[in-house]
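Why run this: before we spend reagent on co-expression, it is cheaper to look at a predicted model of the complex and decide which construct boundaries make sense. The entries below are exactly what would go into the expression plan.
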Amino acid sequence: MKKNTLILIFIMAAVTFLGGFLRFYKITQNPPSLTGDEISFAYSAYSILKTGKDEHGKFLPLTLEAVGDYKNPLPAYLMIPSIKMFGLTDFAVRFPNALLGTVSIPIFFMFLLDIFKKKKIALLGSFFLSISAWHIFYSRFAYEGITAGLFILLGIWFFTKMLNGKIIWAILSSFFLTLTMYTAPAPRLFVPIFVALAIIVSLPKFKKNLKTSGVFIITCIVLGLPMVYSTLFQGSGTRFNMVFISHDIEFSRYVLLKYFSSVSDLPLLFFFWIKRYLSYFNPSFIFFNGLEATAPGPIGLGILYVFEIPLLIAGITSFIKNKIQFKELFFIWIFAGILPDSITNNQKHTGRLLYLFPVLIILTALGAIELYNLLIKVKKIYLKLTIASLFGIIVLLVLTHAFLIISADFPRDKGESFDEGLREAVYYVQVNRDKYKEIVFDPARGVAAPNIITNSFLYVLFYTKYDPLTYQTEQKITSMPGYESYYKFGKYTFRHIDWQKDQYEKDVLFIGSPWSLPEKDFKNGELLKKIYLTNGSAAFFIVSPK
Amino acid sequence: MFPHYIPQNLLFAELLHKMVYIEDAPYILFPLFSPILIWLISKKIFKGFLALIPLLIFLISPWGWYLAIAHSFYIFMFFLTLIIIYAIVLVRSGSVIFGNVLLVLASLIAMYCSSLFLVFVPLSLIILLITKIVSIKDVKTAVVLLVILTLPLLFIINKEKANFKNEFSNEVKIFSDPSLLNSINRYQGAAAQTGLINLSRISENKYLFFTEYSLLKYASQLVPETVFTPQYKLLGFSFSPPIFMGFAIPFIYGLYLALKKSGLQRLLFVSSILTVPSILANETVALNRLILFSPVIFILISYGLIVLYNKRENVLSRNFLILTLFLVIFQLIITVSDIRTREGQRFVQYFGNKYEITEP
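The model came back. Tokens follow.
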């Protein structure tokens, strides 16, 4: 092996190790707790592992039924080996995503090397990915965007290789592109649009390799059919109807001034959508606070770091100016990539854009090289050194700020959104459950107001390692007169706690926020445990009436 | 009944404890004189009837009309800015004397009327001289005259320091947003709890955050969503975009062409100084102030349109041209209908029945 290749492998290994460290370090402590989605995927995975069926009794489901929603199955299936290896633990839940996030780094390196044939771009791009706050943030919990990002990268990479005619690439490309559609909702729209447009712009090559193209299309159809079936007949389409932009609150309340109801409202919807679409290019979203990792404020973390502003601008110029292989595919990637998120009624979400990371990082890497080339042309050495040192200082300051946000601010500001405290509550219950005839959880929580509804039953199932077969087969009570929402299995009940009435229930353990369990009303010895958020606010009280 | 801004007392009047408002001037200046100035400026850039394109775009864009109807003070300042731009164009094209006269007159009026412009006009002139867009030799007389004729104002300011400071802070509100300081305190508090306060002091202090915030504001003025969509609402409530979205296509193309030419790159960069009044406002983008930058946008759109038209034999160019025209006409119709049916109700939803609103 040549010396240069060895050095390259060594540097790549170091970059991957750095990326892995940033993704795995204290992964179970930060984010501070498993989210409702993570828990939901994890228990489904555990249930499938133990019984072959999800918690609702469906055999190897293609769509996972969650509370009021349907989820894509792949994240749960990816968790199965991890749960098998590490048990039903927080680490097992987060391990696959952190691993895929880390693996994305060398794969991205190989992709860049293959497309650009330049080691500098490949190394720089993979380094930017390894330190990307955007990618690190979502790799540290079970978020399907990371898997989608990697699969789309692989799918598009193999698509470019397929254009040279080999059937194996056609199969691999269609496999990864179609698989992505089972991973997250956004790729279900992105992949068909991308494939259609990519075929149009590559039509001459596509026609030239008719056999390969045919294999690609047939594989896509065969692998995609179950998803079409599940969308049409198993409820996955429900999500699309729920989140379509026509139901956007801003649109109905401030633009249309009524609910969207007829075709005549379409023109305004169209212009509202363009406004939404262009807002993805907002500098505040890209560089300053798009990640929403802290409480609202003008300066936080975005998709890219602030020091990447000049790199991105120079990168766009370089991308336009220079001859780059498959340039048109990159254009389609970025412009079609924004489309799925832009037609939803939710706020812009950096997680749903994760599969765009390759394009954005390519642009910044190109920009870095362009600016470096400009810098070496500067003749005065003192000027060259001053510019380089100043930029270096800015990079260090921005990275320090990012480190502080993720390590110190994020757990404090977002603990509640990650359902912090429920793990500790269930641990308490697990140790003490035999002392009580019934254990009641109030699903409503929140420090400012009890306006967050948690799926606390899933936390009970997960942390008590509740036997999936028992859960699938035992009787559950899903409603009770006098309660807006009610759920009961075994000795666990999930309902609103009314302390005025419930304080007379003996041998019952109550777990709820201070809103449903007011501390001032407790008698001596009734309050058994207080659970706090990282920011010091009380999250839950565990109480048993005397 | 139309919403209108509370009139702003002019700087010199405020310092002299008098009341002098520019209330109805926007009504007259906007539809009559500003278009003439835009046409005169674009005549120096585009040949023949092509010079009418920026004027046409300007006249069909809702931006100026909304501000004029609301009696915006910045429509008046826009008129003065156009004169200054025209004066500079004249000086560059050889009409030095007339250019100097216009430059002195418009700059003086602007500086006497607004504390923000008292800083902004000299700053712009200095940048124009440093970047050699205007030669000091050509505007020497104007500069000397400006310095001399500003002395009385500076004299009054010296006597009325507190009054001026108050007036200045009313117009320059960039750092009055408490959320920025709050976030610094929050970040430092969180870092202190985790034992990282020293790192936080270095990387999360007010100097860095104010710099980043200024950068954010500067970048926000320049992205297409700001002027081609109602992202930042006209008069704080409207769904009409400042410029119709269809024009974003020739704008991006014109910008791309301009960026490829090194001479235009510098000119474009310098022209972004016209965004400074909007940057200094309280909001991320203040469309009433950003209108000063609109001539640059109109010219870039026209440039893109002209090149697309010249390359109309090319299928892609022809399609872009057709798409632009379709989108503009379509949105024009929708906007007119929307103004008639919903804008009034929207205003009430945002501001109630109080038709007097504060200008940002």
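The mean pLDDT of chain B is 91. Chain B touches chain A through 49 residues (CB under 8 Å). Bring this page to Monday's planning discussion.
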